[in-house]
Amino acid sequence: MSTDAGTDAGTDAGTDVGRPGGPGAAGAPGATAGRAPFTRAPVHAASGHRLGAAHPRQEGPADLRLVPPALAAWAAAVLVLDAPANWAVGAVACSLLLAGALLLRPVRDRRRGRSRGGRHAALAALLLCVAASTASAALHGADLRRGPVPTLARQFATVTAEVEVTADPRLTRPRVRGNRAVPPTVLVEADVRRVTETGGATAVTRTPVLLLVDVGGETGNRAPDKPPKDPRAPSTGPGTSRWLGLLPTTRLRVTARSAPPRQRGDRIAAVLRVRADRQPPDVVAQPSATQRLAGRLRAGLREATEDLPADARALLPGLVVGDTSRVTPELEEAFKETDLTHTLAVSGANFTIVLALLLGPPGLAQRSERRGLAPRLGLHLRTTALLGGLLALAFVVVCRPDPSVLRAAACGSVALLALATGRRRSLLPALATAVLLLVLYDPWLSRSYGFLLSVLATGALLTLAPRWSAALRRRRVPPRLAEALAAAGAAQALCAPVVVVLSERVSLVGVPCNLLAEFAVAPATVLGFAALATAPVLMPVAKILAWCGGWPAGWIAEIARTGAELPGAGMDWPGSWAGAALLALITVGVLLVGRRLLRHPWWCGVCALLLVLVVVQPPPLTRVIKGWPPPGWRMVMCDVGQGDALVLAAGENTGVVVDAGPDPALVDHCLRSLGITRVPLVLLTHFHADHVAGLSGVLRGRSVGAIETTALAEPADQAEAVRRGAAAHGVPVRRAAAGEQRRSGPLSWQVLWPPPSPPTTAAPGTEGGPNDASVTLLVRTAGLRLLLLGDLEPPAQRALARSPAAAALHGVDVLKVAHHGSAHQDFALIRHVAPRLALISCGEDNSYGHPAPDTVAALRAKGATVLRTDRDGALAVAGTGRELRVAGD
């Protein structure tokens, strides 16, 4: 995990860890309230007045007095949110009694000549914070358990409800379940204000719920003459757009089927499922004027970025206001691989950059001088703080009150309050105060991963980064580079154990990618905010500003794509808290070893070279170390989970791809491990999602000649997705038919199935649907014969056995078993084919029971060696003629 371009909330509200001679360096290891005498001045130092000394550096030990109460309140909220009410009452009572006893203890101590009042008062304050947090969490948790909505949800009742939208609707990504693609769903967070059960009475309430708006029937319904701006992005119908266009505070009336939340401890009391094709949003009350203004500003930014290149058009709204609706799954995956996802979430860095325009560079946070707009205009300190507070409020409204946004605004507000009262900013106390206030205000933040990562990144910048930066400078690292390395490394060290719980992956390129992206975040953010502000009044100017901001945004996207394409960009890791603890221990060990290595430049160079080799993984070295791919490989069955993806060697760095699996990342990884950069043909046996949903991974960064498919375009949504993806990359699409013979280098193949048919009718033997319409190939390479059956089921298998090509099928060398080794097989065909090697592509612990024991037994009965990807991983076939070898990755 990296920081927000190397400056997260640790520099919020124009505050940073000052250093001599420049902004944002190490300076003191912490921050204290400061006791030095100072003179109040009505205006900034830039106006001829000074606030304290010229360089009021915060030397001395860090002020940690507010940290224990904040952490205790946080822990109490986590534990109490879904605890029984009597437990919460008991915890509050015990905390108050203990706090009262501790506050009375100093009186008795003074009578006995003791002086421990400070310790008692600190512990009493901690207990009072625990009591307050417990009470707040108990009340918020009770909201989810009382009223009619939870009861109706447990009954799965159909209700008519009046709801108030509380957050921006968002569209989920399409995903694959089995052989079909699950269409996207619009998620709308809302509060139920009135609810009526069918045939029942109306009740007034205020209960948080989640609306699931099914829009599957509308996906791909875009008019043919209006193609999507980015064909890689899923298209949506007009009904979906109306739901996605709803603003917070809008009131709706919906009829929905209720259900309890899937997981205990969620922030919602019920899930209401709505069908978008049956009911458009029925607006009862329009949103507030503030939300309408914020909506117009965001819409203006989207319009201003409309003509930018695809990546810049997607990223600039994300960098400025967190609008990721245009980010394609491919780009989102690249950001995850490189730990740059935080740049798409509005956080402390954004607020720092905006507030710096008012207050001056963050590096002056520990000094009295200012160089922002406020001192140039001669504004008083209190006026500056008031303007900063209004800016923070506008920032939260426009960018939405997400956890990181709230934390950034709260931390900045504390610093602005210090500015208004003439006190020096104390960074760690400001962060602790922000955490304490936010947890008391909204206890659900205590369970937010985003809030946790934001606080950890900020803490890293305030504690570890200054020390590491100073240590690097002592070893003659240039100051700017030392600051950037320390900031990125510190945030990575603290946040990585939490990130691995969410992603089950550790990025090895996160720090360098964040260092490279850091230089582009600030200009993109400033220009984006300028476009946001000018769009409602001067759209041509906003478009120019957005065009300028598109250059650094495109740079960030290019960094993400390049980093994600590296073979060793990341490594899989257990996504549990035990795995997080293990990663934390390893991180500590690496830091301890690294501290010693810094004294030996040569060893540092050797370690850096080894890391580069691990990340880049040069193919010759990889083949020697990993033995993959084996020399002379002819076919590889990729491990893509519950799906199919095959690669046939057709020359140096060239391969014919048969099916693309369900996940673009998995098939892309397989092709990269084989060094495939040119694909003369992608053959999709049929349009089930577990065979075609990964097509974008095949097309990613490769030269593709053509795509060949079956004639039966079902399911229609997946066939349309294939055509749209091919059009986006300029790849022609054609149909395969029995009798077709082709060659690519040493590779030749013949299409055996399906038979040709008129366009309006199904081919004979394919009446069973897409599976029976699978393209079946007989491949010849280096004296080997390979039979690829797609997902053929018994009717089509029997018809194939009766076809003129049946004679050529006897005694093949390799059989790609149909339909992931399911029980639906024609065992007569298996006996006729009698393969030497049978390969089955299936997912580990899949819910279908693939492969079926009877199918495996039938294959082994004919003397075939049976291998499967769920146990053996990716499988490579090599050899010539009678010499047949197989290796697993």
Instruction: Note the beta-strand portion.
Output: 15-25%
Evaluate the radius of gyration: 31 Å
Instruction: For the record, give the distance between the C-alpha atoms at the N and C termini, rounded to a whole number.
Output: 29 Å
Secondary-structure-derived class: alpha/beta
Sheet with most strands: strand arrangement = 19-18-16-14-13-12-27-28
Task: Provide the low-confidence segments as ranges.
Answer: 1-59, 218-235, 362-369, 758-762
Mean pLDDT: 80
**Beta strand count:** 28
Biggest sheet record: 8 strands, mixed
| Overall 3D shape | globular
State the share of residues found in helices, binned by percent. 40-55%
Distinct helical segment count: 28
Characteristic terms for this protein:
alpha/beta, 889 residues, eight-stranded mixed β-sheet, disordered N terminus, 28 strands, 28 helices, globular, seven-stranded mixed β-sheet, 45% helix
3D architecture notes:
This protein is an alpha/beta fold and 889 residues long. The protein is 45% helix and 16% strand. It contains 28 helices and 28 strands. Strands 19-18-16-14-13-12-27-28 form an eight-stranded mixed β-sheet, with no helix packed on it. Strand 12 (633-637) and strand 13 (646-649) form a beta hairpin. Helix 16 (510-534) packs antiparallel against helix 17. The longest helix has 27 residues, at 85-111. The chain is globular, with a radius of gyration of 31 Å. The two termini are 29 Å apart.
